[in-house]
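Researcher: Quick test of sequence recovery. Tokens follow.
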């Protein structure tokens, strides 16, 4: 029986307010502007039109007639402008001079149309945006498959995405799950689809279409959360490759039992790299280069090609460090690794090739 060891001073992943955010899928937007800011802009425009109309009526107030007291003060002008722009028109204040009627035709009427466009346009824009988002979401759900789900968009999650992107994975094939609305908004700004919610819940992972995913990367803040996410993800998808990060090394076996194919101990891995760099700075530089995909030297797993079948590990053109045969990982110096078989996969060190940036698809 394994027990999850929690760090004594581990910070909480998100505060209570962010955890209470409703679960939903958020598509990336080209122009990110808060809805309240848009409404505030429209409101200011409408108030500006109302103020201008009030000023126009006040300047020509002698050309208007009020059934109550015949003369118009500033409040009467503001009242007339309000009922006129809103097309209410009670008829208690009316223009009676030719100049006032001409001003109504040339200025007040266009301002009334502009006022209605601002108000109605805001409502139509909100409805159109909602319809458009629903259409994009439905289209995305129908098309997405064999994608990569990243649980956690912190330092580890971002680094994992950077490595995956360096291998040629497009942004459209990455879905991010995080309980923080602000984090998902940042992911959307970077061009990624995001799901706001707790990844330990199956309904949240289903929104990320995890049942159709090829790979799942768990980069949560807490080890116990990572275990629950791995259990839930494995239950929903039996064939996906699950890779998880833990803080404490003794939690790694429990995470493997929970369904993770590979577990990386972040604290221990960083410590080993620090120790290696102390003993040999050059060796530390080489290791850093190997784990940084897309520059210098890269570690690449590939299938054995036909021309390599029957050859020894040392006879291949690439520098082979390990051979994956079935579920066995054989070192390059293992006698069983040679000769190579057609069903083998080899892990090699190659010179990184420049990756051509992928252009975003047009909508």
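Model:
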């Amino acid at each position: 029986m394994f027990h999850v060891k929690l760090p004594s001073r581990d910070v909480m992943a998100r505060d209570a307010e962010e955890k209470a955010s409703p679960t939903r899928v958020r598509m990336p937007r080209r122009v990110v502007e808060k809805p309240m800011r848009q409404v505030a802009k429209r409101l200011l425009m409408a108030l500006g039109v109302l103020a201008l109309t009030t000023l126009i009526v006040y300047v020509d107030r002698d050309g208007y007639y009020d059934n109550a007291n015949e003369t118009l003060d500033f409040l009467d002008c503001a009242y007339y402008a309000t009922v006129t722009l809103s097309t209410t028109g009670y008829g208690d204040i009316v223009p009676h001079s030719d100049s006032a009627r001409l001003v109504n035709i040339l200025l007040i009427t266009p301002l009334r149309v502009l006022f209605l466009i601002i108000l109605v346009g805001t409502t139509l824009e909100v409805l159109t945006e909602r319809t458009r988002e629903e259409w994009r979401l439905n289209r995305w759900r129908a098309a997405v498959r064999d994608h990569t789900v990243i649980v956690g968009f912190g330092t580890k999650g971002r680094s994992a995405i950077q490595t995956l992107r360096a291998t040629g994975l497009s942004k459209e094939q990455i879905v991010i799950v995080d309980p923080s609305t602000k984090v998902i908004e940042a992911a959307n700004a970077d061009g990624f689809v995001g799901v706001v919610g707790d990844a330990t819940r199956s309904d949240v992972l289903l929104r990320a279409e995890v049942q159709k995913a090829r790979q799942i990367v768990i980069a949560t803040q807490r080890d116990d959360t990572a275990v629950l996410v791995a259990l839930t993800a494995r239950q929903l998808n039996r064939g996906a490759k699950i890779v998880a990060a833990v803080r404490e090394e003794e939690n790694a076996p429990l995470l493997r039992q929970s369904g993770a194919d590979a577990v990386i101990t972040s604290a221990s891995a960083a410590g080993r790299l620090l120790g290696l760099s102390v003993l040999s700075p050059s060796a530390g530089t080489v290791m850093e280069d190997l784990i940084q995909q897309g520059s210098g030297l890269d570690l690449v797993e590939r299938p054995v090609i036909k021309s390599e079948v029957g050859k020894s590990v040392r006879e291949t053109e690439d520098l082979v460090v390990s051979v994956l045969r079935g579920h066995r990982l054989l070192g390059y110096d293992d006698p069983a690794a040679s000769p190579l078989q057609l069903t083998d996969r080899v892990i090699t060190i190659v010179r990184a090739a420049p990756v051509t940036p992928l252009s975003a698809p047009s909508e």
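The longest strand covers residues 297-303.
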